[in-house]
TrEMBL record:
Pathway membership: Carbohydrate acid metabolism; 2-dehydro-3-deoxy-D-gluconate degradation; D-glyceraldehyde 3-phosphate and pyruvate from 2-dehydro-3-deoxy-D-gluconate: step 2/2
Keyword Flavoprotein: no
Lineage: Bacteria, Pseudomonadati, Lentisphaerota, Lentisphaeria, Lentisphaerales
Enzyme Commission (EC) number: 4.1.2.14
Protein name per the record: 2-dehydro-3-deoxy-phosphogluconate aldolase
Record keywords: Carbohydrate metabolism, Lyase, Schiff base
């Protein structure tokens, strides 16, 4: 099964900012326990690669690196054990590096031009970001209409209250969001609380 299909089956992708590597292992266990074994660990902290390396030991976890903006980070993420790459916008440099590294790339798009650039490099599952700020479901419908073969993973401003609206669109494979792994719970070491929220998120979309 492809990574795209695994993500489509799960329907949700927790977007995670890890500030302490000690949180990586219990977080991986919390997501697996919730029945949501997928994580996008963002490269917004100095310890992102270290956290990915720790989490990559959990073979049941589908693990990606997010906020990747250059080729060096692609290499760093691959070496740490990430199996897919996500960026806020389409980057020719990141795209080329992912192709060379044999990694799946979900480029961020915010316009038809972005979509066409991504398609030119062979990417057909795209991150719509920032989803809510760009007009949400209505904008996504308009973007999707001219590109029938494209699938989307919207992220940005999505939460438990509006995720269902996005997932109702046939072009949407999954939704990304940080609400499933609240920073305050991670900082407090409340990983059972994270499992509970992730389970609730899954139950709400079933």
């Amino acid at each position: 099964m492809t990574i795209e299909q695994q993500i489509a089956d799960l329907k949700l992708v927790p977007v995670i900012k890890i500030t302490d590597p000690a949180h990586a292992a219990p977080l991986a266990e919390a997501l697996i326990a919730a029945g949501l074994p997928v994580a996008e660990v963002t490269f917004r902290t100095d310890c992102a690669a270290e956290a990915i390396k720790i989490m990559s030991q959990y073979k049941d976890l589908l693990l990606g690196a997010g906020t990747v903006i250059n080729a060096a980070q692609v290499e760093e993420a691959k070496n740490a054990g990430a199996t897919f790459i996500i960026s806020p916008g389409f980057s020719p440099e990141v795209s080329k590096a992912c192709i060379a590294a044999g990694l799946i790339y979900f480029p961020g798009i915010a316009s038809p031009r972005d979509i066409q650039d991504a398609l030119a490099d062979g990417w057909k599952t795209l991150k719509f970001f920032p989803a809510e700020a760009l007009g949400g479901v209505n904008t996504l419908k308009a973007f999707a209409a001219p590109y029938p073969g494209v699938k989307f993973v919207p992220t940005g401003g999505i939460n438990a209250d509006n995720v269902g609206e996005y997932l109702a669109l046939p072009q949407v494979q999954a939704c990304g969001g940080s609400w499933m792994v609240p920073n305050k719970l991670m900082d407090a070491g409340d990983f059972s609380g994270i499992t509970k929220i992730a389970k609730e998120a899954l139950n709400k979309i079933k």
